[in-house]
């Protein structure tokens, strides 16, 4: 079987994602699609709008054959860590032939050249980066500006690609493949219709997840029905009806403000991503703000972007300290592969992978767990505190729920117990 | 003016408390009553059913002339610290002639003799205490049993008084008066109708606050109407209607479970009252429990009483570490007197006290605040996270709300702004 990997968050899975899966299959000639998906806390530092089991189900019903969970140690982190963790999971599985990601451009040659600079970090690039950081920009902004300036010397590279924010993750995927010396072949497909962060809906049936979440919170899920595959829509509806969403940062107001009110600048600075004085700004804002939105708004500066602040809040909420993070040895890649669900074809993939994968593949949990997995379980316990309607036992769903098994042929969801 | 002090929690103020205020006034011949009242977290380690401003208002409308706040550093603590802090506030005010407290017995001579033993801690008493602790009892239980055994040698003392739990606070008040070498004269009145902890209602119009809270949570405030002074009832009704109650531990479920899920045994053991292995039991229970009630139920043992666990949870919620507590110098007594409200007669008392009190009397807050007061403000910010309906700005009510001023003659409440 030819196997293509995709790196996703599906927050929630919409028509644009469906198009991406179809394109990935077509452009790589894949027989099967494996997705690495963030769990409950996402790359932009947000809790997922709906839990990971519901999101895995959407994926399985829309053409993905196997859904693996990106450990939270990588998911709510910088583009570089997120990309490295995701690619490392696919690489460790040992049966993935290609990775297919969306970009603003299909120009894989220029993208690869740019990512090579990110990996090599030549001195001149580093000097440009320092220069850009001095302007007070955030790290991601400074890095892409420095990269564009450095690459502009080489006429064969389309250096502007570095400044399109949606390409940066792609560059990081390519960099990760190189760092891992992976045999996986990269492929890119051009994004259509809507930018990643675009908030408004401009295409009749395709909009960004950001726009769909916005519509859901402001006018209800029904107004986003035409932007979602039928199964995504009914899964979301069922979850909302059961009181399990929609989830946003405001659902963690009590925990977050309590944590901030009892913190000191130095205790806060122990958490991953709380640095360069962010601790002082956060504590000051917490004394004035009434909502998490206010809190972020009042904390934000040119350097401390919305995303950076949200990621810091995730670390604070989960209690992820620099000390704990250092014990996870992130540079070594995930020490396990967690399966969230599979179709019949996915099951076949798992059979193949189990003989070849470089780390254990977990479909059930054992008593002794890697530290990185303990952090995933903690994230679920804390995430479950935010359900609008109290769900007794939700804290232990990570342990008690079996993996999802979908009969792809019937395209009907069921959870085997 | 002859001034009598009472030490109260008014959670909520009911007919029994009204009787106590009237008896205190009558038996001591007082012209004015000063109450020291716990703020938002109470001696048994619980959040108050309604905020401190509402409880102060009840007091002012039912015969108390001046309401002072017991700093939270003392309020959610052992009987000994609670009593010491409360008596120290009244002593520091310098205009209080007597303290009047309820007990199972009016026998002030025996109570004084017993409290003298608590202060002196003779070696034989300490040996008995160690013996009782070895039996696996909680500290309060062991202390009262040891005290009763020690006092049994002296026939002139009614040693059984030590074993009635409702007397222990009284003994601690007497001990505190002695430690402070206070000129305040103790007086006791016999409790009527209902024990402190009694959960069921047996008297037609008097029941314990415990029974009233139980009725409120189980069948609604209306079923407790006949047990409350009219003004208490309407204050509670108004607060509930505004979405500010009733408050119980469950209202802090998200914050508390989040804190426990992200704690380690050693980080948890830093908090006041988390000792002797309680940290391990709490963390184990947090993995199983769905509610705060379950959590306490699953943690509790013969030694770790419900009250001890609740007090530990309060420390955890407020982030009160042993380190921070040591910096508060509790043995020196409160470093300020915080006024929550007064009647016209109370205002006259404040005028007298302001010239004589041994610590500053605060009716408004200044920018520079004692550490102990910072802890009170933190407690309010965290308490306000538990209101059933979100109250924007509630975190800063401690700073923005003026003290209550009641016209005793009209007996109508108003907040002067």
TrEMBL record, chains A, B:
Gene3D superfamilies: HUPs. ATP binds at residues 7-20, 102, 166, 191-192. Keywords: ATP-binding, Cytoplasm, Ligase, Nucleotide-binding, RNA-binding, tRNA processing, tRNA-binding. It is an enzyme of class 6 (ligase). The keyword Acyltransferase does not apply. Its main location: cytoplasm. It catalyses: cytidine(34) in elongator tRNA(Met) + acetate + ATP = N(4)-acetylcytidine(34) in elongator tRNA(Met) + AMP + diphosphate. Its EC number is 6.3.4.-. It is found in: Cytoplasm. It comes from the Bacteria. Catalyzes the formation of N(4)-acetylcytidine (ac(4)C) at the wobble position of elongator tRNA(Met), using acetate and ATP as substrates. First activates an acetate ion to form acetyladenylate (Ac-AMP) and then transfers the acetyl group to tRNA to form ac(4)C34. Belongs to the TmcAL family. PANTHER family: TRNA(MET) CYTIDINE ACETATE LIGASE. This is tRNA(Met) cytidine acetate ligase. It comes from Tumebacillus lipolyticus. The lineage of its organism: Bacteria, Bacillati, Bacillota, Bacilli, Bacillales. The gene is tmcAL.
């Amino acid at each position: 079987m030819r196997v293509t990997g995709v790196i996703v968050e599906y927050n929630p899975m919409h028509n644009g994602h469906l198009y991406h899966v179809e394109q990935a299959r077509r452009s790589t000639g894949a027989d099967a699609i494996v997705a690495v998906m963030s769990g409950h806390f996402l790359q932009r530092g947000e809790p997922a709008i709906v839990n990971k089991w519901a999101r895995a189900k959407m994926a399985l019903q829309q053409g993905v054959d196997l859904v693996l969970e990106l450990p939270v140690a990588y998911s709510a982190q910088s583009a570089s860590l997120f990309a490295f963790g995701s690619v490392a999971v696919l690489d460790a599985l040992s049966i993935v032939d290609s990775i297919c990601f969306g970009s603003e451009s299909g120009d894989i040659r220029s993208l690869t050249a740019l990512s090579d600079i990110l990996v090599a970090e030549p001195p001149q690039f580093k000097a440009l980066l320092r220069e850009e950081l001095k302007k007070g920009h955030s790290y991601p902004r400074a890095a892409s500006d420095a990269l564009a300036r450095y690459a502009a010397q080489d006429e064969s590279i389309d250096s502007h690609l570095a400044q399109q924010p949606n390409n940066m993750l792609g560059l990081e995927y390519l960099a990760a493949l190189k760092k891992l010396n992976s045999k996986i072949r990269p492929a890119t497909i051009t994004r259509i219709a809507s930018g990643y962060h675009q908030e408004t809906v401009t295409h009749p049936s395709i909009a960004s997840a950001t726009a769909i979440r916005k519509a859901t919170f402001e006018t209800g899920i029904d107004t986003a029905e035409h932007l979602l595959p039928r199964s995504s829509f009914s899964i979301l509806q069922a979850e909302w009806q059961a009181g399990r969403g929609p989830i946003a940062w405001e659902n963690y107001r009590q925990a977050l403000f309590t944590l901030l009110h009892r913190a000191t600048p130095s205790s806060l600075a122990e958490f991953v991503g709380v640095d360069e004085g962010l601790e002082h700004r956060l504590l000051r804002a917490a004394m004035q703000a009434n909502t998490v939105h206010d809190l972020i708004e009042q904390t934000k500066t040119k350097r401390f972007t919305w995303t950076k602040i949200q990621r810091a809040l995730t670390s604070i909420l989960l209690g992820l300290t620099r000390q704990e993070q250092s014990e996870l040895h992130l540079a070594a890649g995930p020490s396990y592969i967690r399966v969230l669900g599979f179709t019949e074809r996915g099951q076949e993939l798992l059979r193949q992978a189990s003989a070849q994968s470089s780390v254990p593949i977990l479909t059930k949990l054992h008593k002794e767990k890697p530290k990185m997995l303990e952090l995933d379980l903690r994230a679920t316990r804390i995430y479950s505190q935010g359900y609008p309607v109290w769900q007794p036992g939700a804290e232990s769903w990570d342990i008690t729920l079996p993996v999802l098994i979908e009969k792809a042929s019937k395209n009907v969801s069921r959870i085997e117990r």
